[in-house]
Specification:
CATH class of the largest domain: Alpha Beta
Largest sheet: 8 strands, mixed
CATH topology of the largest domain: Endonuclease, Chain A
Number of strands: 11
Distance between the termini: 29 Å
CATH superfamily of the largest domain: Endonuclease Chain A
Shape: elongated
Radius of gyration: 22 Å
Number of helices: 10
Number of domains: 2
């Protein structure tokens, strides 16, 4: 597997409740080998045979693998398209819902409003953080909701968030929390930020809503970081619906 395929595969296993490293290694070995004995799995992964048998039994109960009665017994994976059909179906529903909300947002953005609905482009990560920092400093800002990547935070922005939380600001962050970024997520939580994990399957799209007055919608990849900044009421309303959808489906950490 390529690194990207491996990441997507691990995400799919997480959705099915296969979160332990032992379980992921065992499933991956069977998938790659086609069929494998428990001893073969143990030799290839270094996992004790007793633990291998325990996890294989769980896999069989969940219809992930089946046992071939030979001597010695071998294990093969059931078709992933069948084993993971429920997860795939749920993910499709979530994506369809998100697409409907975004389609509504595109329509609503052109509706008349009493507030400035113009769109401003912000180039660069630090420029965005500076803009959010200045906005949070306003006395009228009481809420800050964001879909984020839980990457290394800006020290200045973190300081402002911590200070404003002490003054009553409610902050909610949600995103795909993994083993690699869990420490950052927990750091936010210790600051008083309400944090939830949700495996949003659009990792390069993030957005922030401040006080229902400002929306920052960011498109980012390894080379570019561009943000749309707007005060459009219809667009903010639609993105609020999307955030609430994520938040209600998310899991506390």
């Amino acid at each position: 597997m390529t690194p990207n395929e491996h990441e997507q595969f691990n995400w799919l296993l997480d959705q099915y409740g296969i979160t332990g490293q032992y379980a992921k290694k065992i499933y991956s070995v069977i998938l790659e080998e086609g069929q494998c004995t428990a001893n073969c799995i143990s030799n290839k992964t270094g996992i004790p045979s007793s633990k291998v048998y325990e996890i294989l039994e769980t896999f069989q109960h969940r219809n992930l693998v089946r046992k071939i009665f030979s001597r010695p017994a071998k294990f093969v994976v059931n078709s992933p398209s069948i084993a993971f059909s429920d997860v795939i179906g749920q993910t499709r529903k979530k994506c369809d819902s998100a697409e409907r909300i975004l389609a509504q947002a595109t329509t609503f953005a052109n509706q008349p409003t009493n507030r400035d609905s113009s769109i401003h482009l912000i180039e660069g990560r630090e420029t965005l953080f500076h803009t959010i920092q200045e906005t949070l400093e306003k006395e009228t800002i009481k809420t800050y909701d964001a879909v984020i990547g839980f990457s290394n935070p800006s020290n200045i922005l973190t300081h402002v968030i911590r200070k404003k939380i002490r003054q009553g600001l409610r902050v909610r962050f949600i995103g795909n929390i993994t083993k690699e970024n869990l420490t950052i997520a927990l750091t936010y939580k210790k600051m008083g930020v309400k944090v939830k994990n949700y495996p949003i399957n659009v990792p390069t799209i993030r957005f922030s809503i401040l006080n229902n007055d400002f929306l920052a919608f960011t498109l980012a990849d390894s080379t570019e970081f561009t943000t749309i900044w707007t005060e459009s009421e219809p667009l903010i309303t639609s993105m609020n619906e999307l955030f609430d959808h994520y938040w209600n489906a998310g899991k506390n950490i």
